[in-house]
Amino acid sequence: MAERVGVVGMGLMGSAFTHHLLQSGFKVQGFDIDEQRVRQFHERGGEPVESPAATARGARWVLTSLPTSEIVREVVLGPNGIAQDAPRGLIIADASTSRPQDSEKLGAELAERGIRFLDSCVSGTSAMAWKKDLIVIAGGTVEDFNACKPLFAGFSRAAYHMGPVGSGAMAKLIINLILFGNRLALAEGLVLGMKAGVEGESLLHVLQDAACSSKTMIDKGPKMLKGDYTPEGQVKTSLKDARLALEQGARLGAPMLVTSLWTQLQQAAYQQGLTDMDSSSFIEVLRNMAGLPTRK
Asked: Would you kindly state where each structural domain of the chain is located, as residue ranges?
């Protein structure tokens, strides 16, 4: 008999999660405040439900994919929240990029109710999610992590246990921090090439084959080169994640030089109306600084 899983949040990432879970043979019941996303979910074979609380009905796991840890808390503990009528032993796996301390607090409160919790962050863009090319970085007990392996295998290519609750969220912020640096260096190099009149396709091809190559160059290089900012991850989300990383650096006394610069560039892109565009659109800020025309 197919395992039942609930999903709350079917945006850029959550839609891909539900698609793969359904393809993997799970019965998926989902909730989202966006009616169009719910319709698309139903068309893929999912079972829409009326509230976050309803996603837990008969489910072994509930997977959340939401914009902020504040929203996660409301969806879990608020009116009609997942925890409202959840059976003891239910596992909530939060795939949102959250503040580590918020995950720790939520996990402790849920434990008092007999509900198990993992901060199950994912690394990869939404385009990678649709290819099932994501990894899960989870924080929680080893027992709960092992119990979630079938769920994680349903929508990702690998899953890693990082330690207690909060460890997954911290590891995700560190991954993002390094990713920010990769994207910043790529954009700066491409703009220099554009300013110098180097043929873009040739330059990107060489960069992708050189010692500096990275997944960023494969995933974001063409978008930066062509000015195609169809969102795979949005400026507003990148800005939120960068601020979370800066907050952890300030809390722990760790240097955050690259992250500070990235945050300012994402803020500039946000203010220039690129809020809902792909985070790679910040290259337009650098193009403007170089005196190159803005691409709409």
From this structure: 4-165, 171-289
What kind of fold does domain 171-289 have according to CATH?
N-(1-d-carboxylethyl)-l-norvaline Dehydrogenase; domain 2 (1.10.1040)
What tens digit of pLDDT does each residue of 193-220 get? 999 999 999 999 999 999 999 988 999 9
**Are 103 and 119 spatial neighbours (Cβ–Cβ below 8 Å)?**
yes
| Whether pLDDT at 296 is above 80 | no
CATH code that applies to domain 4-165: 3.40.50.720
